[in-house]
């Protein structure tokens, strides 16, 4: 039997990423017992996790397609690729903002209806174009909800295009706060944004707290004829409420990257088939970043850009290594080191990092350790109350 590490792609993943898995790896779309999976929007919620699964690499930002609680319970880290597709999404948001504002989507669709009108077409265009008079975005106000990798870029570029920008993000990271232009007016109450803006672009993750964030109550606080852009997730917007708001003119246009049976039938909704991250550059960036994160974890146990494990790394210098994912409760580190010491093993280096209710410990050990001694140590560590998974890397 092959000892290769099996990577199973669950979606089409750019070759630039898959080709990074070289010696020691096999890419197998049909694998039943993969060591790791790499995916884009594949829905893992209904999937039975194979016992072999050690890590999940999401080539993208949103992780609502992955059951994070199950992964954490099983000690499986989920990696994503922060910022790797942000430019692609930002470009499509800015494109759509201008195109929708200038009635381009409707105008282009109407022009197609002139097929068959022969030489009359130029004249029909000149008389018909008055239906599609739009508005320039310069001098208008854009509200950006969520100032992360995408939202901050959208906000900064909208300023460059002559817009006023109001941003709302109660959890903005220090890094993003530095990157955000000082000309973006930040508000601490989302209602202040709702009442001031002509356009809203939403860039938050889909989590229970944000589901249906844009609903009837929110639309009631907005200016009439506001344009809403949703390149984040369909469920952030209540479909029935926005259908009514589009009917009564509170919302002028709804531009969504997440069409469904309701949005496709809404008047004044523009449905884009989830193209936000679909650029060659973004697909390559995401696939490469996810592949690198997976390889680093599988080969060294180091954790970078996980959404359910703490970031943790020790330079890998070839020492036998043990990693442990466990509950973040008092005395865990002392219990782990006591077991190592009782097994007559010597620690060369170690780190312990926590994230919410869980923690991750990496221990480098001295000398050559026999299979039997390693198995004995792992047995001891697994027996500690609160231990979830242990791995040996040598
Ligand atoms: N259309 C696409 O193809 C596409 C591509 C990439 C990402 N996305 C979606 O866009 C989302 C954002 O991506 P990103 O790369 O900017 O992520 P990010 O993590 O860099 O930014 C998300 C921001 O939302 C903020 N936030 C969280 N809860 C909030 C709340 N209740 N109110 C206001 N702000 C809140 C966070 O503080 C963070 O700054 C992803 O979660 C994903 O769902 C879609
Ligand atoms: O992989 C994709 O095509 C879309 C990814 C995007 O929705 C994301 O959340 O990063």
From TrEMBL:
Q: Which reaction does it catalyse?
A: (R)-2-hydroxyglutarate + NAD(+) = 2-oxoglutarate + NADH + H(+); (2R)-3-phosphoglycerate + NAD(+) = 3-phosphooxypyruvate + NADH + H(+)
Tell me the InterPro entries matching this sequence: ACT-like_dom_sf (IPR045865), ACT_dom (IPR002912), D-isomer_2_OHA_DH_cat_dom (IPR006139), D-isomer_DH_CS (IPR029753), D-isomer_DH_CS1 (IPR029752), D-isomer_DH_NAD-bd (IPR006140), NAD(P)-bd_dom_sf (IPR036291)
Question: GO MF terms on file?
Answer: NAD binding; phosphoglycerate dehydrogenase activity
Protein name per its UniProtKB record:
D-3-phosphoglycerate dehydrogenase
* Pathway annotation: Amino-acid biosynthesis; L-serine biosynthesis; L-serine from 3-phospho-D-glycerate: step 1/3
Under which EC number(s) is this enzyme classified? 1.1.1.399, 1.1.1.95
Family statement: Belongs to the D-isomer specific 2-hydroxyacid dehydrogenase family.
Task: Report the enzyme's class at the first EC level.
Answer: oxidoreductase
Job of this protein: Catalyzes the reversible oxidation of 3-phospho-D-glycerate to 3-phosphonooxypyruvate, the first step of the phosphorylated L-serine biosynthesis pathway. Also catalyzes the reversible oxidation of 2-hydroxyglutarate to 2-oxoglutarate.
In its UniProt entry, the species of origin is given as Halolactibacillus alkaliphilus
PROSITE patterns from the UniProt entry: ACT (PS51671), D_2_HYDROXYACID_DH_1 (PS00065), D_2_HYDROXYACID_DH_3 (PS00671)
Which keywords accompany this UniProt record?
NAD, Oxidoreductase
**What are the ACT domain coordinates in residue numbering?**
321-394
**SUPFAM superfamilies recorded for this chain?**
ACT-like (SSF55021), Formate/glycerate dehydrogenase catalytic domain-like (SSF52283), NAD(P)-binding Rossmann-fold domains (SSF51735)
């Amino acid at each position: 039997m092959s000892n290769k590490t099996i990577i199973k792609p669950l979606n089409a993943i750019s070759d630039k990423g898959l080709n990074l898995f070289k010696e020691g790896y096999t890419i197998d779309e049909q694998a039943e017992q993969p060591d790791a999976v790499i995916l884009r929007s594949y829905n893992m919620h209904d999937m039975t996790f194979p016992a072999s699964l050690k890590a999940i690499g999401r080539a993208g930002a949103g992780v609502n397609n992955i059951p994070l609680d199950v992964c954490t319970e099983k000690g499986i880290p989920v990696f994503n690729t922060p910022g790797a597709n942000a430019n692609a999404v930002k470009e499509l948001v800015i494109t759509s903002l201008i195109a929708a504002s200038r009635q381009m989507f409707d105008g282009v669709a109407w022009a197609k209806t002139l097929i068959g009108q022969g030489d009359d077409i130029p004249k029909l265009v000149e008389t018909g174009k008055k239906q599609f008079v739009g508005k320039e975005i310069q001098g208008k106000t854009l509200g950006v909800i969520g100032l992360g990798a995408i939202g901050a870029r959208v906000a900064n570029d909208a300023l460059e295009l002559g817009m006023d920008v109001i941003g709302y993000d109660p959890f903005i990271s220090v890094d993003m706060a530095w990157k955000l232009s000082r000309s973006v007016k930040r508000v601490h109450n989302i209602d202040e944004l709702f009442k001031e803006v002509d356009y809203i672009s939403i860039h938050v993750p889909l989590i229970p707290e944000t589901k249906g964030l844009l609903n009837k109550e929110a639309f009631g606080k907005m200016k009439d004829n506001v344009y809403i852009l949703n390149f984040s997730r369909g469920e952030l917007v209540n479909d029935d409420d926005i259908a009514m708001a589009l009917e009564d003119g509170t919302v002028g246009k709804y531009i969504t990257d997440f069409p469904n049976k309701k949005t496709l039938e809404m008047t004044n909704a523009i449905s884009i088939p989830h193209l936000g991250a679909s650029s060659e550059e973004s697909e390559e960036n995401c696939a490469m970043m996810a592949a690198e994160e997976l390889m680093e974890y599988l080969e060294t146990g180091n954790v970078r850009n996980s959404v359910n494990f703490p970031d943790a790394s020790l330079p890998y210098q070839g020492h036998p290594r043990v990693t442990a994912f466990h509950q973040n409760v008092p005395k865990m580190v002392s219990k782990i080191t006591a077991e190592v010491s009782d097994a007559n093993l010597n620690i060369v280096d170690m780190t312990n990092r926590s994230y919410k209710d869980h923690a991750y410990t990496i221990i480098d050990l001295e000398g050559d350790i026999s299979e039997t001694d390693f198995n004995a140590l792992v047995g001891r560590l697994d027996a500690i109350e609160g231990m979830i998974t242990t791995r040996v890397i040598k």
